[in-house]
Amino acid sequence: MRGARGRDRLVRATLGGRPWGSVVKLGMFISDTSPSQVGIDDLIERAQWAEAVGLASGWVPYVPWSLDAMVALTIAGRETSRIELGTAVVPTYPFHPQAMARGALSTNAAAGGRLTLGIGPSHPSVIEKMYGYSYDRAGVHTREYVEALHSAFAGNGRADAHGEFYDFSSIFSVPDAPAKPPGLLVAALAPYMLRLAGERADGTILWLTDEQALETHVLPRITAAAAAAGRPSPRVVVGMPIAICDDVDDGRENAARIFSMYAQIPTYNRILEHGADPRPEHVLFVGDEAAVSMRLKRYAELGATDVLMAPFAWGAHKDKIFARTREYLASIVQEAAAW
User: Fold this and answer.
1) Range of 117's domain?
2) Is 90 in contact with 117 (CB distance < 8 Å)?
3) What percent of the chain has pLDDT over 90?
4) Which residue among 97, 157, 184, 295 is least crowded, i.e. fewest CB within 10 A of its CB?
5) Which has the minimum average pLDDT: 43-47, 63-67, 177-181, 254-258?
6) Per-position b or e across 31-49, b if 16+ CB within 10 A of its CB
7) Which residues contact 245 (CB under 8 A, 6 or more apart)?
8) Higher per-residue confidence, 131 vs 64
9) What does each C-alpha distance from 314 to 43, 248, 280, 319 come to in angstroms?
10) Contact at 8 Å (CB) between 105 and 182?
């Protein structure tokens, strides 16, 4: 089986000396992607900490155990002043485009124009089993959804969509909405969705996408799509779990347990197959500070615009691992800024 060792050799062989602090922005999840029930007080503390140490962005997921993403970022937006705030990602099927747009514009107003809206169709196991909706033609659905959001974000007092999934014309406005609408990112792993993200959005948010998959699968497709559409170079946000530790084998063993579900979801399974190793525990960031920095530099060199990290920890030393991971995030921001 392909292994992380082969990827690590590739990284060491191809690292260049290009400064990367000004090329890639570093962010983190301020609410957990694993079921640990981050409440409002913890959310505020994490958002304020991320801003204080100089991280560029703070993000929240939309998962069955989380706070509502828009409510969470509205709160975070009132408790911070600089940091970008984003959703990674809100599923489209449960929300009418007007409802999504109104929530996003309201949150953007509360946050002083700092919101980036990450959306995606999610997965059949979520939409069909948890919500009871059809997942039919998810790509077309998402394209229509993006167009509907653009209409609502235009700020002309209208929201219109005329397609297969949505057909409406409505009065639409949000008080205090900033003149510049939220940034719009589309979760994209498959070719069609990467093309959509390049053609009609500001870019994409990825999850568990290693350096090889980024270089050979994601970047060529989304960059070509944006260029063909006459749009600026797309934003490519790489989301990745991270744990700073010395015992890599123990870290990967626990990561395999915590993130095992991703290997069972067809969309993630396909993106993992594009990488150097299809096992999630060999894709995420686990290791000491030097090892993780080496990989961060490679992502920057390849052209990722952002790396969004999701700290995780386990076992009797969970607090120590989490604290060490935080210390690393704070230190790497300062280090990168000096390069």
Assistant:
1) 4-337
2) yes
3) 86
4) 157
5) 63-67
6) bbbbeeebeeeebbebbbb
7) 251, 286, 287, 288, 321, 324
8) 131
9) 20, 13, 16, 8
10) yes
CA distance 46 to 312: 14
* Distance from chain centroid for Cα 103: 19
Looking at residue 12, its pLDDT comes to 34
Tell me how far apart the alpha carbons of residues 214 and 305 are, in angstroms, rounded to a whole number: 12
CA distance 296 to 305: 11
- SS3 track for 160-210: EEECCCCEEEEECCCCCCCCCCCEEEEECCCHHHHHHHHHHCCEEEEECCC
SS3 336: helix
3-state DSSP call for residue 145?
A: helix
Let me know how long the chain is.
339
- Angle, CA of 319, 323 and 325, to the nearest 5°: 120
Q: Which of 282, 195, 203 is nearest to 236 (CA)?
A: 203
Q: CA-to-CA distance for 272 and 267, rounded, in angstroms? A: 9
Spatial distance between the Cα atoms of 275 and 60, rounded to a whole number of angstroms? 25
Number of structural domains (the chain) is 1
Pairing state between β 90-91 and 167-171: unpaired
Nearest to 211 by CA among 279, 303, 289: 303
Q: What is the DSSP string of 89-142?
A: -EESTTS-HHHHHHHHHHHHHHTTS-EEEEEE---HHHHTTTS----TTHHHHH
H/E stretch holding 227: helix 219-228
CATH of residue 248: 3.20.20.30
Enclosing H/E stretch for 291 = helix 289-302
Answer whether residue 248 shows pLDDT above 50: yes
Contact 225, 309 (CB under 8 A): no
